[in-house]
Amino acid sequence: MRLPPWTACSSGNSSRRLATGKWRLDAEEQREEIVVRGQRTTVPSLVRGWIMGDVVGVEVSNLQSDKVTIKQVRLEGGGDEIVAFLSQPFTITPGQTRLVAIHLRQKRAIRKLTSQTSHEVQLNFITTTSLSKGARHSGTITFPIVNSSPSNPAVITSTYLSNSGAPTYASFRPPRATLTCSPIVLLALHGAGVDPATAPEWAPSIKPRQEEWIVFPLGLTEWGYDWHGPSLHDSFSAVQHLKSHLKGKWAKAHGLLEDVTSCEVKKLVVLGHSNGGQGAWYLISRYPDLVAGGVPAAGYVKIQDYVPYHLSVGHHYRDPSLTGVSAFAAGTQLQSILADHCQGIQILISSLASFDNDLYASNLVGLDILARHGVRLSLLTEIDRPFLQSIDDNVPVQHSRQYVTTVREWATSSYANGSQIQMSEVPETSHWWDSVFREDKTQHFIDELVESGKTIARNSDRLRERDKDQIEFTLATANPHETGSKHGFLIKELETPGRLSRIHVKLWTSETGLKMSQIETTNVYAFSIGPSPFPLRQIAQLSINVQPSIDLSTTEAPGVYRHFVQSSHDRTFSQTQTPPLARPYGPLLSILTTPRPLRIVIGTQGSSSRTEHLRSIARRLASDAYLYGRVDSIIQDDVPFLEKEHIVGESNVVLLGDSFSNSVTNKWGKDGRVPVTFLSPSAIKVHDRVFQAKHQGIIYLAAHPFCSSCLTLVLSGTDSLGLERACRFFPFRTGVSLPEWVVSSGAEDGQKGGIEAAGFWGRDWGWSESMSFL
């Protein structure tokens, strides 16, 4: 069989030899054209006759050459207590697999169960294609029965819709209390490859609580996105689902008063191990006002310190100003200041900045954190004292030590509210030990953290005893859309996307009793001050950088957000009534953080071979997005999409093909905000440079015309192999250092490491000279 040219993984250099060897492929003929994979269903637990979820996910693959639309679903057998329905028709394109969301409505508790350990029902799909109407397909749904009660709070599984609209699940351990409700939730983030619903050691490692629910999110998959982006949003969705649905179902199952057992979640206590430990660092440092504190165990600082990036092949070819690693990347305060003044663009490394936990270390100052790691008591001594070496063969203890030190260095100011971070090194323990969260030291820390969080949550106007009349802190972010506030201060928009942003705040009371604030900004275009339980929230005088003070004593009542925007003329800040509408930021990986199913639009205006090539890319993108992160996708042709573009909703959109082959790319690109122009099917202009070499591809983010918080991604090339090169840049995994736009090198440019040009767009999607390599 001859393969199409785009299926060959050619490097563009025919003189290179490829490794050869023997291999064997065993193929199994699939007779069904539509496959319902019942063994891959996403189902909730059944507790005392009540289903602990409101949705079931059933994996359906379309193996025929025509698209399939699921119009209706029905449950048969197992009683009439449950009604199943679709929120809307579900279309699956040829070669695509989707997790069909089947919504459940339960009238009453199931009276007659099919067995003592599970309850089975038959699910029937009614589908239509261009050739058939009303075809039926079936599968079996099995609900596992869990004996869980307040006296025996066993872990249960509950289902909900992820950020992209695909069914997902999390594990939950209920509290013992029946008459009280805690505003604190424990959020436990698992390590790589761990499924909280099936891993025998994960959920039992955390003791049940008297009043608090414990949430064990999946993060979309066992590997997920390192608790960044889509996985982070999934953990928030799990907490929201607990409040909006699960607490009510739990109360019904046990005859409890729902208004007593269900209360607002105001603070999180974040626990995590290994990759989840890194995830705990990530979440706590991005949302300091949302959390009471946490316990990161055996977590790494950031992916560049964990994975050897220097082994990348492209590392040996690319221009250092494109991909160089700063000598000041260690993350201390002094080093960070030096790095801000260090020359060199380092575009590719900048694309990882929003995931670098050490750059956010200042946000952790004042929070209660217990970092845990296993060590070995060495026979060597250091200054006549036992020397603890790392016994962790996965994540060396230096990661925790380094991060704790970095946080403490940010807390050196006398008014920095202190550093409440602790380092706990456990002798003779490896990467994982069963009692990591159950030991007395950890349990006592969690208990105190929960009680402190309750006090703050229930008495938001009262201050903790250690809070002083003077406070000093620094809030940092590289992506305001994935960073919350600290003491009510929130960075809303960056002056230069791709660069780190910081706001340094001093709060004090003057001799006359006025509440004063001094703010220094770095790469901040807009920020807000909101209601928060910091000591001096009713600010009378606000001084920003070197400009005159702003009188806030008579502007707004307490509890109202105040917004400040930089002037484009003199770079001074002024107060505004409405917050600025900042654009969403890259890197390219941000396209997968979609509020609804990802829309993949195929260009059909070019040649038939180009259209079929784009269809192939669409199927592969949808398959990989589902495989790696359970991100759901809807594949459409450009013309039908344009007919209903105004009702596309809050979905990120991927446009396949240039303005000559894709009518959506042509129409949406006319706003001229992004400096990319397709001069011909084989020539692409970025800013003032034209790319027209063979086998060059381009992939870039752009504005979404109907959703200000959504993103558009355009993928094209100068020819078929150029399309393939652009396709390979699509970011399915974390740690891929790709900014907001990338142009691949051409056929004769193998020594450029695969990338010809790359960068970030400006604040309004325009050209950014300082953050571009062209």
Automatic annotation (TrEMBL):
Which PANTHER family does UniProt cross-reference here? PEPTIDASE S9 PROLYL OLIGOPEPTIDASE CATALYTIC DOMAIN-CONTAINING PROTEIN, UNNAMED PRODUCT-RELATED
Q: What is this protein called?
A: BQ5605_C003g02305 protein
**What superkingdom does the record give?**
Eukaryota
Cross-referenced InterPro entries, in alphabetical order? Answer: AB_hydrolase_fold (IPR029058), Plant_Biomass_Hydrol_Est (IPR050955)
Query: What does the UniProt keyword field contain?
Result: Signal
Cleaved signal peptide residues: none
* Signal found in the keyword field: yes
Q: Which Gene3D superfamilies match?
A: alpha/beta hydrolase (3.40.50.1820)
Gene name linked to the record:
BQ5605_C003g02305
